C-alpha cells in the first residue's frame, strides 16, 4: 500500500500559523505524509510580518529535485512565491517532474496586511504558473488583484471572476468567499463546464490566520489520497470550517491567532 504524499512549496511562517508550518500540520492531521520546499523565510507572528528573506531560485530548484526524485508525490500545494525568478524556477520544476495535481494558492498579502508578493511578480504568476495549476484558490482580494478588477460583491461577481481566471489557463478555480459578509461563507468551484457551491456557516472569531493555507493544503491532501477535485474541495471545506470553529480553544499570541489544525486530535 502506497503512503499518500503531498508536497508544499511555500514560505515559512516563524509563528507557525500559516505557510509551510500550517501546510504540514494540515497534511498530518488528514493522514498524508508531508514534504516541503521552502521558498522564503519570514519573520512573522500573529501580529504581522516584520521581515522576508527569499531563498535563491537555484536552491529552491535543488529542493524540488531532491524531493521529487525520491518521493512518490500525489499532489503539490504551491503557496508564497514572492519574486519572478522563484515563480519561474517552481514552474520549471513542476514541468521537470511532471506534476499535474497542483493546487495554487496565490498568496499575496498576509492576514495581518503584510505584502508577500512583489508587485512585478503578479504578471509572472498569471502567465507562468496559473496555466500549470489543476486548481487556483484565490480569496476575493487575491482574485481582484490577479485580474486588476474591483472586489467581487456577489456570487455572480465571484463566478465571473473565476471564469476570467480559467481563461488564463487553470483547469479549475476555487474562489473563496471568506472575505464577504453574510451568515454563510460560500466558495465556488468553477470548471469549464460546471460550478459547484460549497457553503458553511460563517464563524465569528478573530483566529483566522492561515485559513487559506489550510484550505489549499487540505485540497492537496485529498488529491494525494486519490479523491477527485470536487470531493477534495468538499472535505477540505469541512476540515477548515471545523478548524476555525475550534480555534478559540487555543490561546496563541496577541494578534490574529491560528486555526486549530489538530482539532480532531487535541
Topology:
Blueprint: E1 5-13, H1 19-29, E2 33-45, E3 48-54, H2 57-70, E4 75-78, H3 84-96, E5 102-104, H4 121-129, E6 135-136, H5 140-147, H6 155-166, E7 172-176, E8 184-191, E9 194-201, H7 211-224, H8 229-245
Tell me what the structure shows.
The chain is an alpha/beta fold and 266 residues long. It has a single domain, classed as UDP-N-acetylmuramoyl-L-alanine:D-glutamate ligase. The protein is 37% helix and 22% strand. The chain has 8 helices and 9 strands. It has helices at residues 19-29, 57-70, 84-96, 121-129, 140-147, 155-166, 211-224, 229-245; strands at residues 5-13, 33-45, 48-54, 75-78, 102-104, 135-136, 172-176, 184-191, 194-201. It has a 6-stranded mixed beta sheet. A 3-stranded antiparallel beta sheet has the order 7-8-9, sandwiched between helices. Helix 4 links the parallel strand 5 (102-104) and strand 6. It is globular and about 45 Å long. The two termini are 28 Å apart. The model has no long low-confidence stretch (mean pLDDT 94).
List keywords for this structure.
single chain, alpha/beta, UDP-N-acetylmuramoyl-L-alanine:D-glutamate ligase, 9 strands
Q: What's the CATH topology label?
A: UDP-N-acetylmuramoyl-L-alanine:D-glutamate ligase
Low-confidence stretches: none
Determine the N-to-C terminus distance.
28 Å
Number of strands: 9
Helix and strand content put the structural class at alpha/beta
Characterize the largest beta sheet: strand count, sense, and whether it forms a barrel.
6 strands, mixed
- At CATH's second level, what is the architecture? 3-Layer(aba) Sandwich
Q: What would CATH call the homologous superfamily?
A: Ribokinase
Helix content: 25-40%
The percent range for strand residues is 15-25%
Amino acid at each position: 500500500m502506497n503512503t499518500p504524499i503531498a508536497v508544499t512549496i511555500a514560505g515559512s511562517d516563524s509563528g507557525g500559523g500559516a505557510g509551510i508550518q500550517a501546510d504540514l500540520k494540515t497534511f498530518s492531521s488528514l493522514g498524508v505524509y508531508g514534504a516541503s520546499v521552502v521558498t522564503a523565510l519570514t519573520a512573522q507572528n500573529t501580529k504581522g510580518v516584520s521581515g522576508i528573506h527569499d531563498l535563491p531560485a537555484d536552491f529552491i530548484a535543488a529542493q524540488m529535485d531532491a524531493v521529487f526524485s525520491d518521493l512518490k508525490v500525489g499532489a503539490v500545494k504551491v503557496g508564497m512565491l514572492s519574486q519572478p525568478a522563484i515563480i519561474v524556477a517552481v514552474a520549471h520544476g513542476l514541468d521537470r517532474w511532471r506534476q499535474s495535481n497542483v493546487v495554487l494558492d496565490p498568496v499575496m498579502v498576509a492576514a495581518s496586511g503584510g505584502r508577500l508578493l512583489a508587485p512585478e511578480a503578479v504578471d509572472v504568476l498569471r502567465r507562468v504558473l496559473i496555466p500549470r495549476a489543476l486548481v487556483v484558490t484565490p480569496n476575493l482580494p487575491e482574485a481582484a488583484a490577479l485580474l486588476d478588477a474591483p472586489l467581487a460583491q456577489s456570487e455572480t461577481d465571484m463566478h465571473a471572476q473565476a471564469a476570467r481566471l480559467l481563461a488564463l489557463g487553470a483547469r479549475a478555480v476555487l474562489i473563496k468567499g471568506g472575505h464577504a459578509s453574510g451568515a454563510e461563507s460560500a466558495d465556488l468551484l468553477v470548471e469549464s463546464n460546471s460550478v459547484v457551491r460549497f457553503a458553511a456557516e460563517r464563524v465569528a472569531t478573530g483566529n483566522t490566520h492561515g485559513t487559506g493555507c489550510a484550505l489549499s493544503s487540505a485540497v492537496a491532501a485529498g488529491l494525494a489520497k486519490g479523491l477527485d477535485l470536487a470531493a477534495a474541495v468538499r472535505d477540505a471545506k469541512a476540515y477548515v470550517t471545523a478548524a476555525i470553529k475550534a480555534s478559540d480553544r487555543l490561546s496563541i499570541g496577541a494578534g490574529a491567532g491560528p486555526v486549530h489544525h489538530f482539532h480532531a486530535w487535541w
